[in-house]
Design a protein that fits this description.
Number of domains: 4
Radius of gyration: 35 Å
Strand content: 5-15%
CATH architecture of the largest domain: 3-Layer(aba) Sandwich
InterPro entries: 2-oxogl_dehyd_N, 2oxoglutarate_DH_E1, DH_E1, KGD_C_sf, ODO-1/KGD_C, THDP-binding, Transketolase-like_Pyr-bd
CATH class of the largest domain: Alpha Beta
Strand order of the largest sheet: 3-9-10-8-7-4-6-5
CATH topology of the largest domain: Rossmann fold
Oligomer: single chain
Family: Belongs to the alpha-ketoglutarate dehydrogenase family.
Helix content: 25-40%
Largest sheet: 8 strands, mixed
GO biological process, one term: tricarboxylic acid cycle
GO molecular function, one term: thiamine pyrophosphate binding
Shape: globular
CATH superfamily of the largest domain: Thiamin diphosphate (ThDP)-binding fold, Pyr/PP domains
Keywords: Glycolysis, Oxidoreductase, Thiamine pyrophosphate
């Protein structure tokens, strides 16, 4: 209800409602009865106000108000007249509506800005005059039915309590919450304490100690490393005691582990003063020494991107903390944190989601501007993704690089996006450390109680520029003039404690001096500091190793016994009688049953299910998520069967045996960026399980490119963090247009170096089976990017036998020619290709009866199987070498394989010494949208690839003409 509800016709309605109550109490809604009854039971109070409220004397002010000049109305039992009681009822209702409005809008008048730049302006709905009151009513008691903890209160007292509760240095947004229990909890928690922070003297001194460490550390760095980028926390130091409060109170409420994510602003301070990374270690990094042990390889990263882990103890309770490494994409780490939290909760059996907590620190501009924030909120309450709520701390320094808030968001607050999940939002003035810590305590208690997200928006400022080497006054002269004269948060709080006689000024000064002396000592020892052993292969990663040399020659044990395969097959093809399976799926199950009886015709989806099932039988949990994964985008998977009668679900792969690990398949929200980041985070915490993300179509992964660029391809090199994540990208040219053809394999190949990940385009279900099992069966972890098929899912030639999955079978990086041809030295052309185009070439070759053109499949593009490719090319010593692909020349694999193939033919002395290209010409669009044109293009490339008379030379660019320039590409 708005304040205007209580004027005009509505006031008349309420008066009439009261008249109806007097005639028959049961004739009105029960919600009104208690209020009317209380008024009638207190005739003394009513008798003392026979004149009624001041606004009641002016009949034109409120329609329906009593006219005191009229003859005295009939008295009701207790001595009060109808008009007097009616006036009293309206008075109370208006007061209650004003209280409600403060709950809704009081934050608009809160004192949040330490700089005073954004002073709150008077809001008409927070003015008592809006409700018909005047100054003459300020000292008159009003019945408010124990709201605000008072049965009655003077209007002046009500206004004072409301401003203290809702308009101080904490402003609360919670009335948008629809759950009545959650809303009532926040209201009670705030109004019971009047939002007044109460701390013991010891508690206050502890807050000052944390502020002293936070400020002292930044000042020390500024002096010792002037102008060096560190993205300091100055102006936002109150976040340190706030996080400490979350850890301390959280440990009391059951928190055992915290996964922390943040961008670079304040990261060094959090590392030092929350994660307790040794100061000498940080100083050593500033001096140019490596952050990681000398025996660990990697490119490293700048100091303010690094993560770490530690154990903190609070009152005898241990909280394990891990800070995730993060790139400069400010909010990219958010879903990674959530995925890791979910994985850890599963590992320790935290089904209530109260033992592992995710905390994310945001900047105000990033929180409002980065879409992945909304994607993460969108996942927060979904099955398979919920983590029991995340604590979001916004370090709101009221500027984004150089952009002021009015240019960086459209809403009132940077935190408005959190309302999409009805999260409570606590705005707090960063220069009031006690208020910040108090709000942090409310936040963790709320999260533990309701398992929901909560946001603490700490309004502060940024004392330096975006980094410490720039001049912020270029763009914000007014703000930085105020900042230059602003007393630091630590000094303001020290003055406050001195004024409260909690400590003397000498004690406060000594605290700062002692900490500075401690830093000086750490600075001296940093010169000889040696980092400890890296922790990246500890915990659940223990027993795993880095990738060894000559990986190409390793054949990992991915085979299975026929018995194990048939056991999974039985689970796949058997459903309980109580499950009403769709008739079309019943036919598919019958077909699968035939596959296992004959041992032939294993298609792509069945091979995948066998890989999942056998790994689960061996104790490895499987997690597959993505859009429509349960059924499969192309109706190929059906790993979740829907009962046609009641829509209950049945997952066959979870019914193999009583001892198996769990198979989890999730239809994800329509998100790529956040969901892929989530699964990457999950894989970081679970090296012993197979974690997969599937794009609905391969090109949809371009919405998640940041995760590929910043985490998947480089996380191990930058941060020494391995991942075995599998990414499935449907790919293939079937005439479905530019958006449903190419998964852009060239993008992933461009990211490949230093054995950082694998890129495959497989042509047999058996090879897919072994590729998936290889992820777990070897003793290291690497991300795997697979261009998965679409039309091949049902292609009659794209099948394998059970024997191909059974004993003495394994993954093939290169598949040689499989059909009978002329003698090797009489083969005129060897065509190398990858993926679906092989079947197009095979069909065209059979149709033409060609026997002197060999087809060799490169199944794994990276790591490049040089020796295996070399062996196949050398085998056909008189043949022309051709690379054939469906994709345009500037896409696909050509630019990646061309220098590598050219190096091989030159190294072997092969004649002719040039590698030819067959495929679509270079194009801006991945594919045509016209089926007729597509068919013509496919026919043309098949003809060119197989016709030795149509020699399709493409001259090589100059840098690729000398073998000496290619040696490093032959890896």
């Amino acid at each position: 209800m708005e304040a205007s509800f209580l004027t005009g016709a509505n006031a008349t309605f309420i008066a009439e409602l009261y008249e109806r109550y007097l005639d028959d109490p049961q004739a009105v809604d029960p919600t009104w009865i208690s209020l009317f009854k209380e008024l009638m039971d207190d005739p003394a109070s009513l008798a003392s106000e026979l004149k009624g409220p001041s606004w009641g004397r002016n009949r034109t002010q409120v329609v329906g108000a009593p006219d005191l000049d009229a003859p005295p109305p009939k008295k009701k039992p207790g001595g009060a007249s109808d008009a007097e009681v009616r006036a009293r009822v309206l008075d109370s209702i208006r007061a209650l509506m004003m209280i409600r409005t403060y709950r809704v809008r009081g934050h608009l008048m809160a004192q949040l800005d330490p700089l005073g730049i954004n002073e709150p302006t008077a809001h008409p709905e927070l003015d008592y005059r809006t409700y018909g009151f005047t100054e003459a009513d300020l000292d008159r008691e009003i019945f408010i039915d124990n709201v605000l903890g008072l049965e009655k209160a003077k209007l002046r007292e009500i206004m004072s309590l409301l401003k203290k509760t809702y308009c101080g240095t904490i402003g609360v947004e919670f009335m948008h919450i629809q759950d009545p229990d959650q809303k009532a909890w926040i209201q009670k928690r705030i109004e019971a304490s009047r939002n007044v922070t109460e701390f013991t003297d010891l508690g206050k001194k502890t807050i000052l100690e944390r502020l002293t460490e936070a400020e002292g550390f930044e000042k020390f760095l500024q002096v010792k490393y002037t102008g060096t980028k560190r993205f300091g926390l100055e102006g936002g130091e109150s976040i340190v005691p706030a996080i400490e409060q979350v850890l301390k109170r959280g440990s009391q409420l059951g928190i055992e582990e915290v996964v922390l994510g943040m961008a670079h602003r304040g990261r060094l301070n959090i590392l030092a003063n929350v994660m307790r990374k040794p100061y000498q270690a940080i100083f050593s990094e500033f001096q140019g020494n490596p952050a990681n042990p000398e025996d660990v390889q990697g490119s490293g990263d700048v100091k303010y991107h690094l993560g770490t882990s530690t154990d903190r103890e609070f009152d005898g309770k241990i909280v394990h903390m891990s800070l995730q490494a993060n790139p400069s994409h400010l909010e990219a780490v958010d879903p990674v944190v959530l995925g890791k939290v979910r994985a850890r909760q599963g590992q320790i059996g935290d089904t209530e989601r109260t033992r592992v907590l995710g905390i994310i620190l945001h900047g105000d501009a990033a929180f409002a501007g980065q879409g992945v924030v909304a994607e993460c909120f969108g996942m927060s309450q979904l099955k398979g993704y919920r983590t029991g709520g995340t604590l979001h701390f916004v370090i709101n320094n009221q500027i984004g690089f150089t952009t002021a808030p009015q240019y960086s968001r459209s809403g009132t607050y940077c935190s408005d996006i959190a309302k999409m999940v009805q999260a409570p939002i606590l705005h707090v003035n960063g220069d009031d450390p006690e208020a910040v810590v108090h709000a942090a305590r409310i936040a963790i208690e709320y999260r533990q109680t309701f398992k929901s997200d909560v946001v603490l928006d700490m309004v502060c400022y940024r004392r330096q520029g975006h980094n410490e080497s720039e001049e912020p006054a270029f763009t914000q002269p007014k703000m930085y003039k105020l900042i230059s004269g602003q007393t630091t948060t630590r000094n303001l709080y020290a003055q406050r404690l001195v004024g409260e006689n909690v400590m003397s000024q000498a004690d406060a000064d000594k605290m700062a001096a002692d900490f500075h002396a401690h830093l000086e000592g750490e600075f001296e020892t940093a010169k000889s500091y040696k980092p400890n052993k890296a922790d990246w292969l500890e915990g659940r990663w223990k027993g795993l190793n880095q990738l060894g040399d000559e990986e190409e020659y390793q054949q990992y044990d991915t085979q299975c016994s026929i018995e194990a395969l048939k056991l999974v097959g039985k689970a796949l093809t058997t459903t309980p009688d109580s499950v009403d399976v769709n008739r079309k799926i019943q036919r598919q199950l019958k077909a699968k049953e035939q596959m296992f009886e004959t041992g032939e015709g294993i298609d792509w989806a069945t091979a995948e299910a066998l890989a999942f099932g056998t790994l689960a039988q061996e104790g490895h949990p499987i997690r597959l998520s993505g859009q429509d994964c349960g059924r499969g985008t192309f109706s190929q998977r059906h790993s979740v069967l829907i009962d046609q009668s009641n829509e209950n679900t049945y997952v066959p792969l979870n019914h193999i045996s009583d001892t198996q690990a769990h198979y989890e398949v999730l239809d994800s929200p329509l998100s790529e960026y956040a969901v892929l980041g989530y699964e990457y985070g999950f894989s970081l915490a679970e090296p012993n399980g197979l974690t997969l993300w599937e794009a609905q179509f391969g090109d949809f992964a371009n919405g998640a490119q940041i995760i590929f660029d910043q985490f998947i391809c480089s996380g191990e090199s930058k941060w020494l963090r391995m991942s075995g994540l599998v990414v499935l990208l449907p790919h293939g040219y079937e005439g479905q247009g530019p958006e449903h053809s190419s998964a852009r394999p060239e993008r992933y190949l461009q990211l490949c170096a230093e054995d950082n990940m694998q890129v495959c385009n497989l042509t047999t279900p058996a090879n897919y089976f072994h590729a998936l099992r290889r992820q777990i069966r070897r003793n290291f972890r690497k991300p795997l990017i697979i261009m998965t098929p679409k039309s091949l899912l049902r292609h009659k030639a794209c099948v394998s036998s059970l024997a191909d999955l059974g004993p003495n079978s394994g993954f093939q990086r290169v598949i040689p020619e499989t059909q009978p041809l002329v003698a090797d030295d009489q083969v005129k052309r060897v065509v190398l290709c990858s993926g679906k185009v092989y079947y197009d070439l095979l069909a065209a070759r059979e149709e033409r009866g060609i026997t002197d053109v060999a087809l060799v499949r490169v199944e794994q593009l990276y790591p490049w199987p040089k020796e295996l490719v070399k062996a196949e090319i050398s085998r056909y010593r008189n043949a022309e070498v051709v690379w054939c692909q469906e994709e345009p020349a500037n896409m696909g694999y050509w630019t990646f394989v061309m220098p590598r193939l050219q190096f091989i033919v030159e190294e072997t002395g092969h004649t002719p010494a040039k590698v030819a290209y067959v495929g679509r010409p270079a194009s801006a669009s991945p594919a045509t949208g016209l089926m007729k044109k597509h068919v013509a293009e496919q026919n043309r490339l098949a003809e060119q690839a197989l016709d030795v008379k149509a020699w399709p030379y493409i001259d090589l660019p100059q840098p690729f003409k000398r073998a000496t320039t290619l040696s490093k590409m032959g890896e």
